[in-house]
Amino acid sequence: MSELRSALDGLAAVDVVALPAGALGEHIRELFDARNRLDGAIERAVGVFDAQGMGEVDGCPSTASWLRGRCRLLGADASARVRTARALRELPMIAAALEAGEISLDHARAVALLAHETDIADTRRVQRQILDVARLTDPGRFTSELKSIRDSIRRDHGDDPGEDETAAFARREIVVSPVLDGFNVRGWLPDEAGVLVKTVLDALSTPVSEDLRTVGQRCADAFTEVFRRVADGGALPANHGVRPHLFVVAELDALLDTERAVMAQLGYGAVASAAAARRIACDAVITRVLISPQGQLLDLGRTTRVVTAAQWKALVVRDGGCVFPGCDRPATWCQAHHLHEWINGGPTDLDNLALICGFHHRLVHEGHWSLRVCGQRWQAVRPDGSTITGDPVGYHPDKHGLVDAITNRPRGPCRE
Predict the structure, then answer these.
(1) Over the stretch 339-377, which tens digit does the pLDDT of each residue have?
(2) Which residues, 6+ apart, have CB-to-CB distance to 20 below 8 Å?
(3) Residue partners of 364: CB distance under 8 A and separation at least 6
(4) Which residues are 271's β-sheet partners?
(5) CA–CA separation, 281 vs 254, rounded Å?
(6) What secondary structure letter does DSSP report for 406?
(7) What is the three-class DSSP state of 260?
(8) pTM above 0.70, yes or no
C-alpha cells in the first residue's frame, strides 16, 4: 500500500495543464486503465472479506453495511460491490480481465447481473465469449449483447420468455420524493417502457443555442418538458374543479423583487426564488389574495389570465418558436415572455411579448440575460453586456418571410 500511495502522490504532482493535448489524452486513458485495475483489486478483496464474514466480526450485519459505514459508500453502490464480488469469485476469467484493466467495473457488474438472472455455471461456461464482446464495446452496448446471451441461456433451459417479461413488468416502479434541495426521482422500467421513455427524452434533449448543459441536465429538462406539455394539454382529471398544474403562492414583494422578498411556495414542500416566481408569472393564471397580518382572508380578487388564447395564437404565427438568437425550439416548447416584466408594469401586448423556450426563459430570469428588439431584430444581451443578434421580428424559416400584420414595431434604437 505504501508503494500505491507513493504512486498516487506522483500522479497528484503531474502538471496536467502543461501537457499537450495528445499527451493529456493518453494520460487520461491510462488513469482509467489504472482505475479499472484498482476496482479489480477492490472486488477481489471484498470477495474474500465477504466469504469469511469479516463484516459481521467487525460488528456489522452484512458486508454491504460494513462498506456503507467504513468506506462511506452509498447503499446501492455497496450492494452492487458485494453482488459483483460474489459473482467474480466464481468467474475467474472475468475477474482477471478486470484486474488487468481490460474491462471496467460496469462490465463486471453487468456480467454479475447476468449470472444472477440465469445461472453461475452457465455464465462461467460462456466467459470467453463474454470477454471478447466486453473488450470491444462500451458498457451500454455490452449490456444489450448480454441480453441476447441471457435469452439464449434461458431458451436452452426451456424457460418461457413470457414469464420473464411478466416478472419484469411486476418490478416497475417510479418514486418521486422531496429532499432538502429539490426532488429525488428513482425507478425501474421494463424494456418496452424504458425504450419508450428513452425515445421521447432523446427527442426532447437535443442541445439548443448557447447550451452549456450536460447530457444529464438536458435529459432532466426534457423529462420536465414532457410533464409540462401534459399539464398544458388540459387532459388530466380535475381536482376540486381545478386542472392539475404548477401552483405558486408568492408574496407581492417576491414578484416585485424587493429586498423583503421571501421564497415562493410550490407545493409538496418545494420553494422557488423570486426570480423563478417572476418567470412563472410571465404566462400564468393569477389570483390576487389579500390577507391581514393575523392571516385572515380579506379579499379574493378576480382571476386574470396574463396572455389570452388569441394572443398566444398571434405569437405562434408571428414568432413560430423560440425567438432567442440561434434557438430552433418550436412553439410547443415555449412560454410567453414579457420583455418588460408584467409585474413591473409591462403591458400584456404583442409588442411586449415574445415566445421563448423553457431553457432560455430560465436563462433570462435566473441567468441575468435579457431579450430585446434592436433595429427590428431580436437581440439577446449577456450578463457582461455583449450581445447576440438573431432573426428579424416576425421571421421564422417555416414561413420564409415577415408577418407584418402581427406587429408594427418601429425600426430604431434597441429597446428592452
Answers:
(1) 887 767 788 788 888 999 888 888 888 888 889 998 888
(2) none
(3) 279, 337, 356, 370, 371
(4) 265
(5) 11
(6) T
(7) coil
(8) no
